[in-house]
Amino acid sequence: MHGKWDWLRDEVKGFGLIRNAPTIFKFISGKLSGPDDLVKCALCPNMCRHACPISIVDGKETTSPAGKSRVAFLIREGKVELNLKNLEPLYMCLSCDACSQWCPFEFSVADLIRPIKEEAVEKGVTFEEFKEVFENLEKHGYVYGEPREEKVWKARGEVLYLRGCAIRENYPTLTDKALYVLDKLGHKAFTIEEKCCGVPAYNLGNKELFKKLAKEQAERINSSGASLVVVSCPSCAYAYRVLYPRYGVKIEPKVVHIAELLEENLENIRAEGVVTFHDPCKLAIGLEKPDTLKNVLSKVEGLEVAAPRRSGKETFCCGHGGSAVSRLNPKLADEIARERANELGEEAKLVITACPTCKMALEGVGDLKVLDLVEFIHDLLRDEDARIEGG
C-alpha cells in the first residue's frame, strides 16, 4: 500500500495528531483490530467530499460524508442524544454512493449510518415528514397513499413489466410506451397490481416495513408466472437484485432494467440532433452499469451523444434520491438538481435519463427538455414504423 495513505499523513499533521498517526494508520488499513468501518470513515479527512452532491451544494461540515459518520458515531456511543436535531445531518444523504467510488475501502456512507436511522425508527424518533410515507406504505403498499384505479395489462407472455411508484403516480403514460418498446423487442409483456419495492422505507430507516414490503412484492412477482422481470426504476431494480438477497428475500425470475434490455437488443434505429444524458445513481453505481445508458444512445445512428462532465460511476445525483432530502429540505434537493441541470445544459438542451425520479427532478428546475429513455426510444420506433407504412 505504498503511498496510499500519504494524503492522510498530511492531513493528520494539520490536526496536531502526528503522535497518534502510526496507530491511526494501522486502524484504518485494517492491520490493527479495534475500530469498525464507521470509525474509519469518521477518521477520514473527507477525501470523497468533492464527489458528494450534498457537500458540494450544502457546504456544511456536518452534512459532509465524514461529518455524517462522525455524528452517527457520537450518537451510537451515547456522546450526543438520539433526537431529531442530531439525526437531521444523517438524513442529508442521497444514498447515491458517490462516496464509495473515492474510498479506498469502497465504503458507502449511507450504509454506515443506516443502523442509527433504524435505531431511531425503532425508538419512535421520526420526522413528521416521514410518518405519512410509512403510513401509506403500511396501509396501501404505495408511497403516495391509496393508488388510483389502474389498468392492468393481462398476461400476454412471460415478461412482467413493473412500473414502480414514480411512474404510476407521475408518468402513467410511460407504461404504454414501455410495453410498446418491449413488444418491438419481441417481448409480449404484462403488468400486475404491484406494491412498492420498499426502497423508501429502507432509505428512511424503517427496516421492518422494508422487509414486509419486500416479502409481499416478491410473492406477487414469483406467483405471476413471469420468467423475466423488466423495470423502469433503477431503485426498484437495485432493491430486487441487491437488497432483497441481503434480507433473504428471493425473486425467482431474472430482473433487468429496461436500459439493459435495450443495450442488448436495440438495432436499426436512427435519429438526428444532439443529446446528452444523465446516468441515474442506482443504475451506474448501484447496479454497476456505468455505460449502459450511453451505450443505448450510441446505438442510434445519426445521433450525436455529448457526454456530461460527470457521468458513469462519477455521475452527479439529481438531488431527489434517498427519500429524505427532498422531504426534509426540498430547497436543497432542488439546488442540487439545478446544479446538475446547468451542467447537462452545457452539452445539449435535450437530456435523456433512465429513471422517472431523475426526470421529475431535472425537468422541474430549468428549461431543459428531459425524456426518459423509454419515451425517447418509443418515439423513434414510432417514427420508423410510420416511415415504413408510408413507403
TrEMBL record:
It comes from the Archaea. SUPFAM superfamilies: alpha-helical ferredoxin. GO terms for cellular component: plasma membrane. Residues 40-105 form the 4Fe-4S ferredoxin-type domain. Residues 159-238, 275-362 form the Cysteine-rich domain. GO terms for molecular function: 4 iron, 4 sulfur cluster binding; metal ion binding; oxidoreductase activity. Keywords: 4Fe-4S, Iron, Iron-sulfur, Metal-binding, Oxidoreductase. Pfam families: CCG, Fer4_8. PROSITE patterns: 4FE4S_FER_1 (PS00198). The keyword Iron-sulfur applies. Belongs to the HdrC family. PANTHER family: IRON-SULFUR-BINDING OXIDOREDUCTASE FADF-RELATED (PTHR43255:SF1), IRON-SULFUR-BINDING OXIDOREDUCTASE FADF-RELATED-RELATED (PTHR43255). This is (Fe-S)-binding protein.
